[in-house]
Automatic annotation (TrEMBL):
InterPro entries named in the record: DUF5641
Residue ranges occupied by any DUF5641 domain in the UniProt entry: 77-123
Highest taxon of the lineage: Eukaryota
Pfam families documented for this protein: DUF5641
Lineage: Eukaryota, Metazoa, Ecdysozoa, Arthropoda, Hexapoda
Name of protein: DUF5641 domain-containing protein
Length: 133
């Protein structure tokens, strides 16, 4: 599989179906970024169209016309509220060559793993006013 720039300005994925009789959009699916707003709308539309199907069926249906980069990441609880995410404790930080921390080690009930900082959510702090409620 290799990406290419189509004449209409879109980036598409060229695959092994080049000699098939399928339509152009199926042979060369449009590449979508997983974090883009349009991708989220396309995924939501497919989710409703397929009557709330599971991740495997959703991804299969999406890949008929689109190639979502890291496709399964669109279904891994990104839309769930942060307080429902798995809990863990940051045990180590890993700064890059520029000194900026972009990766942390997190210890959870199932072991230690590394995560990008942008995928880590700190729990809300409980203040004295909230404890009395």
């Amino acid at each position: 599989m290799s990406p290419f720039l189509h004449t209409d300005g879109t980036v598409r994925m060229k695959g092994r179906l080049a000699n098939s009789t399928y339509p152009f959009n199926k042979i060369n699916p449009l590449i979508l970024s997983p974090d883009h707003y349009i991708t989220k709308l396309v995924v939501l539309h497919e989710h409703v169209r397929l009557m709330h199907a599971g991740p495997q069926q959703m991804l299969s249906s999406l890949r008929e016309n689109y190639w979502v980069i890291s496709g399964r990441s669109c279904f891994n609880g990104r839309n769930s509220p942060p307080l429902r995410w798995k809990l863990g404790r940051i045990t180590d930080v890993h700064p890059g060559a520029d000194g900026v921390v972009r990766v942390v080690s997190i210890r959870t009930s199932s072991g230690t793993t590394k995560r990008a900082v942008r995928k880590v959510c700190l729990l809300p702090a409980v203040t004295q006013d909230h404890q009395n409620l």
